[in-house]
């Protein structure tokens, strides 16, 4: 009888308390409320159930084999969607694995949130030796745009909202959100929990440029003798495609796209100066930077590639005021979001705008056509084994035939040469290592792009770069993603012919296993593998893969002697000048 009374009392108490929720569900509800439907991560303590429950609530949870690759997928999801991509990791080692992707996202201005479970504060702060004990918040702070920790279930809504706003507002970047294990099991009234959630409104508000800044820039541009526009990946991220195209075409000014800005206007556009890049940079007098920074990729805006010192005047559009004058003087800074700034420039140009001097246009066109003729001859060689240009010529044609496909690209020569060889026709279709030049983004980017867009992905990888994330081909197979991976296999880093000068039995430090068959890895996981030794074999294999939409890996056999040290950026790899006696 007493047991029955006890059960009755418990039921009454539960009905009095009402429906309950917990930290797990509040995190999921907060993400879903803000339109986030995909999570990338690696399950484990203490976030395994968070992934299970999120999947049960209709979110898509993509589980990887390594957190860095999951983080890269989340980062590129942010670039493609302008919503923060979510990476979910376990504590300590998993968190550390995700940090490279978080730092890379911040450097590249990709909105991403790294959510990691962590050990309990009271134990961490006293350094009492908890499971995977680490002060993760302190470690993350220097590597991201913002970092937050949530200790109480009632604050989860605010914590997620702050992370979202920080990731996408102003200059986008990576954000860290620390969720200690005990937070997930905290229980509160369900209605109070719903009330605690926050839907972020106008997370990235427009930042309008000053009218005086627009007038100053247009005055400088109107008087230019040899103007040039440089489009950076920030311009692609902005998704102000129509206004950017209208500005370029109305101005009549030649333009250079940075690699991830390729396709904002087709690379075959008559104003594209990509094939005359060196001359365009060296001889221009007024340069308009739209979403591009004067970092190492542009030789910091100075040096031999930019001609005589003081020969350039720069107009720069950037949402971050501190970016101005970072390397050279910016004569006409325009601070604001790219869409608003380009729209203001267009409005200020009026009904007509003077065309650039004909001698400037003709000089670039002459150089461009001469360079295209030279490159065309290299691309059409029918050699076996293939060299980089031969293989890239095949892929260039395939992308032309399939402009909607997404190209992921990394490596040394594989990356450097593909940037100039493969034309792009639509925006945000070329994804590569970006500002940091970090290798290993390939499979994470490929998975993220396939999941977020549903489009076919062609991932062109150097054999060295593929090694950083190659195990994720199992992830590609597990989720049956439309990804075709082409590994340019020349048996080593840069090339496979280096020798160990000591005469010892070890191979040279840049040499891999000779004639490795990467395609067999894909077959091991149920995907399609192919080995291509000629241009015809490569074309047939890639076309079949893109037609099928099935996970495929093609081992493209490249001449081991092909390739050069550090590709086209050899000056970044110091050479020893001391000869040992």
SSE diagram, text form:
Elements: H1 2-17, E1 20-22, H2 23-33, E2 38-41, H3 48-56, E3 60-63, H4 67-81, E4 85-89, H5 93-108, E5 112-118, H6 121-125, H7 136-140, E6 146-149, H8 156-168, E7 174-180, H9 181-185, E8 187-189, H10 190-196, H11 211-222, E9 227-231, H12 233-238, H13 241-251, E10 255-257, H14 277-283, E11 286-290, E12 313-318, E13 332-335, H15 338-349, H16 358-379, H17 388-401, E14 406-410, H18 413-421, E15 430-432, H19 442-453, E16 457-462, H20 463-469, H21 473-478, E17 483-489, H22 519-524, E18 528-532, H23 535-548, E19 552-557
Parallel strand pairs: 2-3, 2-4, 4-5, 5-7, 6-7, 9-10, 9-11, 11-12, 12-13, 14-15, 14-16, 16-17, 17-19, 18-19
Antiparallel strand pairs: 1-8
Helix pairs in contact: 2-3, 2-8, 4-5, 4-19, 11-15, 13-15, 16-17, 17-18, 17-23
Question: Mind explaining what this structure looks like?
Answer:
It is globular and about 80 Å long. With 581 residues, the protein is an alpha/beta fold. Helix content is 41%, strand content 16%. The chain has 23 helices and 19 strands. The chain folds into three domains: 19-196, Rossmann fold (3-Layer(aba) Sandwich); 211-365, TPP-binding domain (Rossmann fold); 380-568, Thiamin diphosphate (ThDP)-binding fold, Pyr/PP domains (Rossmann fold, 3-Layer(aba) Sandwich). Helix 2 packs parallel to helix 8 (156-168) and helix 16 (358-379) packs across helix 17. Strand 14, helix 18 and strand 15 (430-432) form a beta-alpha-beta unit.
């Amino acid at each position: 009888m007493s047991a029955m009374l006890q059960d009755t009392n418990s039921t009454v108490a539960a009905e009095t308390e009402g429906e309950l929720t917990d930290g797990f569900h509040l995190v999921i509800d907060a993400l879903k409320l803000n339109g986030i439907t995909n999570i990338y991560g690696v399950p484990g303590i203490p976030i395994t159930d968070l992934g299970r429950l999120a999947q049960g609530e209709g979110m898509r949870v993509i589980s990887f084999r390594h957190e860095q690759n999951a983080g890269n997928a989340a980062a590129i999801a942010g670039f493609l969607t302008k919503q923060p991509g979510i990476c979910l990791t376990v504590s300590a080692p998993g968190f550390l694995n995700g940090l490279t992707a978080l730092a890379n996202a911040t450097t590249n201005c990709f909105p991403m949130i790294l959510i990691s479970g962590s050990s309990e504060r009271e134990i961490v702060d006293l350094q009492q030796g908890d499971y995977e004990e680490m002060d993760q918040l302190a470690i993350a702070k220097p590597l991201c745009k913002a970092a937050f920790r949530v200790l109480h279930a009632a604050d989860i809504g605010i914590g997620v909202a702050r992370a979202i706003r920080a990731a996408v507002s102003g200059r986008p970047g990576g954000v860290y959100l620390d969720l200690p294990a005990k937070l997930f099991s905290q229980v509160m009234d369900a209605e109070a929990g719903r009330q605690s959630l926050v839907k972020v409104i106008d997370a990235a508000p427009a930042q309008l440029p000053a009218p005086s800044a627009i007038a100053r820039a247009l005055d400088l541009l109107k008087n230019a003798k040899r103007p040039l526009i440089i489009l950076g990946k920030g311009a692609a991220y902005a998704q102000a495609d129509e206004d950017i195209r209208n500005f370029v075409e109305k101005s009549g000014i030649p333009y250079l796209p940075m690699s991830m800005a390729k396709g904002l206007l087709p690379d075959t556009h008559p104003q594209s100066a990509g094939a005359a890049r060196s001359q365009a940079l060296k001889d221009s007098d007024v340069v308009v930077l739209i979403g591009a920074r004067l970092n190492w990729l542009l030789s910091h805006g100075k040096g031999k590639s930019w001609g005589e010192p003081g020969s350039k005047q720069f107009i720069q559009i950037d949402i971050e005021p501190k970016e101005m004058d970072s390397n050279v003087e910016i004569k006409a800074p325009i601070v604001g979001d790219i869409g608003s700034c380009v729209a203001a420039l267009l409005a200020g140009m009026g009904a007509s705008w003077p065309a650039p001097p004909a001698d400037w246009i003709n000089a670039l066109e002459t150089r461009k056509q001469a360079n295209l003729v030279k490159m065309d001859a290299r691309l059409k060689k029918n050699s076996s084994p293939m060299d980089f240009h031969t293989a890239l010529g095949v892929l260039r044609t395939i992308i032309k035939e399939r402009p909607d496909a997404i190209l992921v690209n990394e490596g040394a020569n594989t990356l450097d040469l593909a940037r100039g060889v493969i034309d792009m026709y639509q925006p945000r279709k070329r994804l590569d290592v970006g500002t940091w030049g970090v290798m290993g983004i390939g499979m994470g980017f490929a998975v993220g792009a396939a999941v977020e867009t549903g489009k076919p992905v062609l991932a062109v990888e150097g054999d060295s770069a593929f090694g950083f994330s190659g195990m994720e081909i199992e992830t590609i197979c597990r989720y049956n993603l439309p990804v075709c991976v082409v590994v340019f296999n020349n048996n080593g880093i840069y090339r496979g012919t280096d020798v160990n000068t000591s005469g010892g039995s070890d191979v040279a430090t840049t040499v891999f296993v000779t004639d490795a068959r990467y395609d067999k890895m894909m077959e091991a996981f149920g995907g399609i593998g192919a080995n291509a030794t000629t241009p015809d074999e490569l074309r047939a294999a890639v076309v079949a893969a893109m037609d099928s939409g099935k996970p495929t890996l093609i081992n493209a056999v490249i001449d081991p002697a092909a390739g050069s040290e550090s590709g086209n950026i050899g000056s970044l790899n110091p050479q020893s000048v001391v000869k040992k006696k």
